[in-house]
Structures are given as C-alpha cells and as structure tokens.
Amino acid sequence: MSGRNLPALNALRAFEAVARLGSLGRAAAELHVTHGAVSRQLRLLEEELGLALFRREGRGLRLTDAGQRLGEAAGIAFEQIQDAIRSLRRGAGPDTRVIGCPGSLLARWMIPRLERLRRDLPGLQLHLSPHEGDFSPALPGLDAALLVGEPPWPTQWRVHALASERIGPVVDPRHPAAARLHGQPPGALLGEELLHTASRPQAWPQWAHAQGLDPAALRTGTGFEHLYYLLEAAVSGLGVAIAPQPLVAADIASGRLVAPWGFVDTGAHWCLCTRHDADPQLERLAGWLRAELAIRG
Fold it and tell me: Looking at the Swiss-Prot or TrEMBL record, what is one Pfam family this protein matches (predicted)?
C-alpha cells in the first residue's frame, strides 16, 4: 500500500458507503457510479487487505468482524472530513447553510423554487447537497436534512414537520393506459404493468392497501434505481408510475401527467431535520418550506 499505508480512497469510499447503507445499489446511487463499479472497488479492497469484509446472506450482504471494525473506523473518518468541509463552506459566509436532500427532491422540487426562495428569504444562503440513502444521525457535513420519513427519529434531531406525504399513480395522458384507466375504479390498475423504483419499493403496496387492493396482485414492469428516473420515465410516456404529489404537481398542472385517482396519505411526512441547537435561519427555512408545500404542493 502507498502513502500512509492506506488503500485507495475510492475503494474506502465505496466500502464505507456499502457498510453504512447496507446495499450495493444504494451505495452506487450515493456515489453516482454503477453497481459494478462499487463491486469492483470492494473486491480490490478485500484483495489488498487479504480479508473478507462482507459475506453474502441470501441476496444481501453482511459485514464480517473485520468489515465491522473497518466500517466503524471509516465512518468516523469520513464524518470528520465532512464536518471539516461543512466548516469550510460555512466560512464562505456566516449565513450559508448546507442542506442535504434526496436527489429527486432536489431536482424536481427544490431547484424550481430556488429563485422564489431567494426572493422571500434574502438573508439566507444555501448550499444544497444531494444525498441518497438514510441520513446519519449526526448529519455530518450538513446543517439540516430535507427528507420524507416517519418516526422513530434519531434522538440527535429536531424535526420540523412540513407536510404529510401523499402518493398516487400518474401517467402521460397520451399513453394508452390513460384512456383505459379514465373513469375506472382503482382496481383497473391491476391489469397494468407498473413502473417502479428500487428506492421506494413500498410505494405501490402502500397505495394498494389504501385503496383496499391486494398488493400481491400488482404487476411490476420496468424498474429504475432512482425516483427521479422513474418520474422522468412517466413524463416521457413509458407507463404508469407511483409518485409523491409535490414532485409531479407542476407536471399535472401543465397537463404532462394525469393522476386518475388523486393521492393518498402514506403516514410519512416531509420534514426539515436539524440538530437540537436553535438556528433562526433554519427556523425561517422550515416555515417557508411548510408554506410552499401548503400553497403549491
């Protein structure tokens, strides 16, 4: 090994992400690389160390004792680096806040609203950081996390509930399924192949339960790793997708998508999660987000 007798940084980053998220797919999404790239980095790291860091259990992975030790050390090290980066970013201006949020939420909801946010809260400077998978309780490198979730919450967090999460089927009105489903009861969807995403496997079953349907009767078609790609596929006319209402509100208003049966509550909430210490700027941001979700979805 070179340098300070450490393995390659890319291999350590891939290992830490898999150890923390418990999934090759989620680690690949967070690192913006392919599933195969993460797998290769893990293999190279195990070969360099001469140790097995994971063992397969069914279709999943479990850390070995050696992997557990390295995972804990790597997690602490990367959190310290992220904390240092946050401090450097904050140094660019006393009012800068680093906000983490899922990439689909960032791309389809936050970015279209940034101009209005800057106009309404002119003293607040934000650095928006895309994040996939679960957030660490310590929020390393972040001042807050904008996410959709439900209790139990980490004890380190102060959770600002913003709005109930609502989901529903959406489809391009030009797609043949739109005509088949128009005016029909929700059970008509059981005959369709449904677009779905690995990041929200529970979404279709939640909707089916809310409609009194058997989730096992749903037929899944093409799958996507990220919610963002799923929604782009729906807008592109590839089929029926399941979507959070705020992320498709603009598409429905413009006629690019229709929601045949509207949206149902999932029991989860949109939340801005911060540390317990009071931060007036983040309080203002939480209030603005809450109002924006109430007015425009």
Answer: HTH_1
Identify the CATH number of the domain in which residue 165 sits. 3.40.190.290
Contact between residue 256 and residue 108 where contact means Cβ atoms under 8 Å apart? no
Question: Within a domain: residue 3?
Answer: no
Contact in structure between 99 and 143 (CB atoms under 8 Å): yes
Quick one: residue 58, left, alpha or beta (phi over 0 = left, psi -120 to 50 = alpha)? left
Residues 75 and 190 both lie in one domain: no
The rounded distance, in Å, linking the Cα atoms of 165 and 157 is: 20
Give which of 96, 114, 101, 103 is closest to 162, Cα–Cα: 101
Q: What phi and psi values does residue 160 have, to the nearest 5 degrees?
A: -100, 105
Q: Which of 92, 64, 75, 86 is nearest to 16 (CA)?
A: 75
How many angstroms separate the most distant Cα atoms in the chain?
Answer: 67
Domain that holds residue 37: 9-80
Question: Which residues of the chain carry a pLDDT beneath 70?
Answer: 1-4, 83-84, 86-95
Q: pLDDT tens-digit profile of 95-152?
A: 689 999 999 999 999 999 999 999 999 989 999 998 887 888 888 888 999 999 999 9
Cβ neighbours for 106, distance < 8 A, ≥ 6 positions apart: 128, 130
Q: Is 258 left (phi over 0), alpha (psi -120 to 50) or beta?
A: beta
Report pTM. Answer: 0.70
Nearest to 131 by CA among 119, 118, 116, 148: 148
Give the β-pairing of 219-224 and 193-197.
parallel
Token pair of 64 as six digits: 């070995």
